[in-house]
Amino acid sequence: MAVPAAQAASSRQVIEIVNGQRVANGIPGIVEDPALSRACELHNRYLGLNPGVYPHRETPGRPGYTQAGAQVAPNSVLMGGGPDPGPPPYPFDSGRNPFQSHPFHLAGLLRPALVDTGANESSGWTCVATGGGRERVGPRDMRFYTYPGPRRTGVPLREVVFNEHPHSPGDLVGIPQGTASGPHLYLFGFGLTAAQLRVRSASLSGPAGKTALRWVDNTHPRSTLDRPAAILIPPHPLDRGAYCVSVRGTVHGVGGFGHRWAFVTEGSTAAPPSGCVAPPAAGLRLVSAKTSGSRVRVHVAVNARTRGRLRVTVNAGPAPRRLSKAGRSRRQGGSRVYGFAGKMPPTSPGSRWMIVEVRYSRSDGGTDARTGKTLPVGS
């Protein structure tokens, strides 16, 4: 798992390795926060002075305790406690990511919202921060990132997970550590809603046909995934060739989703299947909402390349009211604009606000979307 090295990698080298992995697979990049690197160094020192303690916590009064170390401890991935006697393993010095065979840990390093990180290899330990700094703001529509990324080539045929604590995703779905499986496939949902992602079905199509996948999403009671995310596992090593992953499920607070992406395994010259592409983003937005006397009129725009059903509801008190489509839709750039109209719903005494909510239920396998706005009554 780890190769003993005479010299630890610098924080810059560690972050370059992780960042290169992210960017090569289409995941937004990360930058170093020197304060987090220093916190990792302090926590490594604490672990070196207190062998055998739980590594993701610091106890006041123990040798080497610091507030900075205590803050980074639960927000980091850690590896260490190497052989004694002998030089400690500093695995990033090998030029690769040692958390590659630790799926839950790797997911923390790849999550799209991560912007600031810190890293340190010292005192026999490796620490990389996965939280505690700035977070990337997600888009209004739910967006998906994957690892391996779309149309990625050279993906390993097999993967064996060793020594992930307290457990690995495979341990939870009948593929215990030490068992050769296909490569772990990561799906990250990224949007304004920090929601749970539940996979309903998933399959992998390749040279030998379709294979059922096993998965752990962040609704699993023993999952350590930052939400929303899922790890999908082919039960057996793959053959050389091109593959298409297809996943369907729900995101709490958003609705249903479908996502597909392709990759090619190592040793193959096959092209990624052209039909394995993710449906376009909904591009849902509320263009306008106005009241005139007892009437409400709303205009909604969606990506013209998508297909689905719009539902517009207005609430200004005890009972919401659904609006009906009004007139024909019109094309505006890459969007299609729809009009909705209806009577103003009953208002609560003294109410001065109305809430317009728009839901878009996709029928083309894409991700559902919703938006809304609070407006003064009479606007």
3D architecture notes:
The protein is mainly beta and 379 residues long. It has five helices and 25 strands. The strands form seven sheets. It has a five-stranded mixed sheet, with no helix packed on it. Strands 17, 18, 21, 22 and 23 form a five-stranded antiparallel sheet that branches. A hairpin with a 2-residue loop joins strand 11 and strand 12. It is globular, with a radius of gyration of 25 Å. Mean pLDDT is 91; it is low at 1-6.
Oligomerization state: single chain
Sum up the overall morphology in one term.
globular
Query: Helix coverage percent of residues?
Result: 10-25%
Structural class: mainly beta
Sequence stretches where pLDDT stays below 50 over 5 or more residues? 1-6
- Number of β-strand runs: 25
Short recap of the structure:
The chain has 379 residues and is mainly beta. Helices cover 13% and strands 37% of the residues.
Defining key terms:
globular; 379 residues; mainly beta; 13% helix; five-stranded antiparallel sheet
Topology (SSEs and partners):
Elements: H1 11-24, E1 31-32, H2 34-49, H3 67-72, E2 76-80, H4 103-110, E3 116-117, E4 119-122, E5 125-129, E6 143-147, E7 152-155, E8 159-160, H5 169-172, E9 180-181, E10 185-190, E11 197-206, E12 209-212, E13 214-217, E14 229-233, E15 242-251, E16 255-265, E17 285-292, E18 295-303, E19 308-315, E20 321-322, E21 324-325, E22 330-332, E23 335-343, E24 353-362, E25 369-376
